[in-house]
Specification:
Number of helices: 5
Helix content: 55-70%
Oligomer: single chain
Length: 97
């Protein structure tokens, strides 16, 4: 993701530092059936929320906003959040390097 924004993703990275395609690939590696349409939907949602300032004012992390795009059950949501934290904690992936 290369859009300029000050929206926070919940791990200290701004929306502009998030590589949504790499994260989608990471989800695929961990049993999620991620489609290109889901990636585009998540990207559109991020851009829309960032442009209206809702990411900053609502107090939600980016993962909270996009997890419904990729998850269909509460178990999926728990695993998604675990993978989000794991992915973003690695150097060079939008976490604290």
């Amino acid at each position: 993701m290369t859009q300029n924004s000050s929206a926070q993703n919940g791990s200290g990275a701004t929306e502009s530092q998030i590589d949504l395609v790499a994260f989608a690939a990471y989800l695929r590696e961990h049993r999620f059936d991620v489609t290109p349409e889901q990636v585009m939907s998540a990207r559109k949602l991020i851009l829309c929320l960032a442009s209206t300032g809702e990411l900053d004012t609502a107090g939600h992390s980016l993962s909270t906003w996009i997890k419904p795009v990729f998850c269909s059950s509460s178990e999926d949501e728990q695993e998604f959040l675990r993978l989000w934290d794991e992915f973003h904690s690695k150097p060079g992936r939008g976490g604290d390097d």
